[in-house]
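Morning. Coffee machine broken again, so started the prediction first thing and wrote up yesterday's gels while waiting. Chain of 273 residues, entered below exactly as on the submission form.
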Amino acid sequence: MGLIPGWPAVAADASGLSLVQEVAVAHIDEQALNASLQSLRKSAVAADLVAVMDRAVDSVNEVFGYSGAGIMFVTDSGYLSYVAASDEAGRQLEEAQAASGQGPCYESYVYAREVVSADLQADAHLSPRIRAVAGIPLMLSGSPVGTINTYHDKATDWDDSDIAALRAYANLLAETVGTALTAQDHSALAGQLQYALDYRIVIERAVGYLMAAHRLDAVTAFDVLRKRARDSRRRIADIAAEVLGPGAAPGSDDQTGGGPVMPGAPARDGDPA
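Came back before lunch.
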């Protein structure tokens, strides 16, 4: 464990006697983190993507020392699907978030930023055995394709070292995935990630349109697309392309009423009943 910079462990008073001050100790041991990342990087060279993800969650779990870790990737239907989890509780948490379209990991993917929850008590339906979650998006070419997460069975105040460590693992995994795609890896997971990367822009544009047209937040707008894709058994990018029809796409001459009213989307003021 390392000390957070700027926090002295000991100070002296006017008499020269040492006064012990409160010390903020970082959650993550930097040396252990670096050793773990180095080992994971070496093992990733000859391993397939799924094996790398399995090793990654084990590495995160070992370095963090909390209750577990997991990795999720988006599917062509817009659902986050768990790829690896260190234990059954983590798998259940990730599956619950994927099914409901709610939770810190889901928000981390949609907003493409770290999301932490110190206490999931209000969302106990996601997993009664897990109380705190921290998630970081896995980014490829500037777009999120999934998340890496760690969780605790107790309420937890996540610190900067937690987030920095998760980001380091996310960067390494993104590098590994990017290498696999460049090498034209033909595994199912590689194909899934290539799809997510290829169609992220049109999906983001459709989310933005729904947000403006129906006054939704990003998570709700994405969920509208996701549910429509599920109900129609089509890919989320196909649904997004429908939303970006004449009058709806950015830069069109008529953006006042274009685009279909999506099933499941709240009606706008002035929309016909």
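Strands lie at 10-12, 18-20, 68-74, 80-85, 115-117, 132-140, 143-152. Going to sketch it on the whiteboard this afternoon.
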